[in-house]
Amino acid sequence: MGMMDEVQAGKDLYATFDTTQGTIVVRLFSKDAPKTVSSFVGLATGELEFTDPSTGQKTKRPYYDGIIFHRVIPGFMIQGGDPTGSGRGGPGFNVPDEYQSGRTFDKVGLLATANIGRPNTNGSQFFITTSKPTYLNNKHTIFGEVVTGYDVVEKIAGVARDASDRPRQDVRINKLTISTTQP
């Protein structure tokens, strides 16, 4: 039984981001956003096929390992999940929006999908909030929340960055692991 099966069974899962700045653990909302969590988990574990943007070939491997946080804005969020590091890359497919849970951006440390500003354009990119951006309600699917390591999120948000909000020194996800119990 793979981790995507665990999502389909409605089990709570945890994503552990081992980054160059420290560890962040997020509880995923499998019941609230099953399609989003299933895609995220499948990409993280290598269970879900995606199109490699550098080769154009379909492949299966842990997608997020080695990817950078390409956009950080103090007092707002940190963003990652683009294998090209440009903010424009993705897995070659879209995941539909999931707002039915009624979750809102009412606290810091929420994990949500990044999109291109149009409905149902979620792919692999995500962000973790360091504010309460309620104007994003029903525009980005909320699919998890930080349970440990929020200080690491703040640390990443505060790194030196250029005029495009890209960190001057790469902040990398060394490894992203999924588990059924909180680490």
Automatic annotation (TrEMBL):
Its EC number is 5.2.1.8. It catalyses: [protein]-peptidylproline (omega=180) = [protein]-peptidylproline (omega=0). Keywords: Isomerase, Rotamase. It holds the Pfam family Pro_isomerase. Residues 22-178 form the PPIase cyclophilin-type domain. The keyword Electron transport does not apply. PROSITE patterns: CSA_PPIASE_2 (PS50072). This is Peptidyl-prolyl cis-trans isomerase. It comes from Pyxidicoccus fallax. The lineage of its organism: Bacteria, Pseudomonadati, Myxococcota, Myxococcia, Myxococcales.
